[in-house]
Amino acid sequence: MSRTPYEPYAQPGPRGPELPRTSGTPTPGAITVIGTGTGTGVAATAPPGATLVVGARRHLEAAALPDGVERVVLGPLAPALDAIERHLGSPEDRDRRVAVLASGDPGFFGIVRALGARFGPAALDVRPSSPSIAVAFARLGLSWDDAVVVSAHGRDPRTAVNVCRAHPKTAVLTGPGAGPAELGAALARTGIERTLVVAAALGTADETVERLSPADAAVRDWTGTGVSVVLCLDEARVLSPVQRIVAGPPAAPAGWALPEEAFGYRDSMITKFEVRALALSRIAPRTGDLVWDIGAGSGSVAVECARFGAAAVAVEKTADGIERIRANAAAHGVDVQIVHGAAPTVLSQLPDPDAVFIGGGGRDLPAIVGACARRARRTVVVTLAAVDRVGDVRDALSAAGLVPDGLLLQSSRLAPLPGGVTRLAANNPVFVLWATRPGTEGAIL
To answer: For the structural domain made of 260-436, what CATH number should be given?
Structure first.
């Protein structure tokens, strides 16, 4: 069945209960949200009968609106929403219609969320076009169901940077202060291999799709280029032959607190899996986080955090430890930034972490804990064997404004004896201390 350009989509079949309407709620379909034709160069045009058109300046100019139509240039969101509400007025003003012009698919990290929260989904008639991310990947001939998509538009770019560090295929929706230069500068400091693909002015005569190193992107002036999206790729892992069932980043690992045999390590210098299990539960690594593993040794904690999608930094002062961490990260297919040096001296070159794991002891432990705790955004986990240092560590955590807690973990593993019987083999007891910054519990990206 043919459909006119601005005919609302039919809603066949039974519908669920409508959301309750309060005084001043617009009539159904009073706000038409139209996405530009990112992939075809077609500009978004307001439907006939629109009495107010809202959009970015470039969208309003491209739409060639008739004289007399009221316009609102979209900048800060709240004033635009207020203008829409004033224009629609009371439920009796049923002849008024608002058109909102947006880019690509306005329901994907777009204005549909704010409009729906303010006026209710029933008031919206959404007509999307191709998302800029889909178009950018299409230009490269790549699928993107296995890409991680992150928005840095109007947000702190640190989350986007962390996702790019941890995942081989990431798409970043850019914004002022979070464009190719800022992403490139942050990634260039990690030593992790990445290629940036900068897609600008997609769907126009000025379209460009350019591959650069992070260092090259960092020194370019991108002002006025109309950057639409930046793809961050590990070229060696960008092609995945696996048929996906769920889009986005890989699912969380089926298992964690891996046995010691899953890592290469020296003598007994590895965080035992029982201790690692408790530490991971307090670190709570996730996509978008940055985790420091201080005194990493084998890097087992950093590797496990990276398996959960977090960006991980392993700090280790021994040369042979550096090689083990590198080998363990490669064996588990994750990217870990490795810093060769001693804490707290080398920490000044690193961005602030969300969580920190500190293993081992030594006389400098309270100073290291204090330096990490002052910069941790969410939590610090410390494991140690010496009871004498527990008080100093707790004091260092408290002095940094974190709330400390902890326990003594004492475990025994089943071990075989001759005759087919089993005994309990006790591990050395370990203090596991953790501390959380107030107000960060349950925070979401």
So the answer is: 3.40.50.150
Phi, psi for 327 (deg, rounded to 5): -65, -40
Whole-number percent of the chain with pLDDT over 70 = 91
We find that the CATH architecture of domain 133-237 is 2-Layer Sandwich (3.30)
Distance of CA 403 to the CA centre of its chain: 26
**Angle made by CA atoms 361, 362, 363, in degrees to the nearest 5:** 135
Fold for domain 31-130?
Cobalt-precorrin-4 Transmethylase; domain 1 (3.40.1010)
Q: pLDDT value at position 43?
A: 67
Buried b (16+ CB within 10 A) or exposed e, 379-394: bbbbbbeeeebbebbb
Residues 363-396 have pLDDT tens digits of 899 999 999 999 999 999 999 999 999 999 999 9
Q: Is the peptide bond before 344 cis (omega within 30 degrees of 0)?
A: yes
Rounded Cα gap, residues 144 and 164, in angstroms: 15
Question: What tokens appear for 243 in the block?
Answer: 């048929």
Q: Where in the chain is the domain with CATH 3.40.1010.10?
A: 31-130
Residues 4 and 165: their CA atoms lie apart, in Å, by 45
Bridge-based pairing state of the strands 379-384 and 430-436: antiparallel
pTM for this one? 0.87
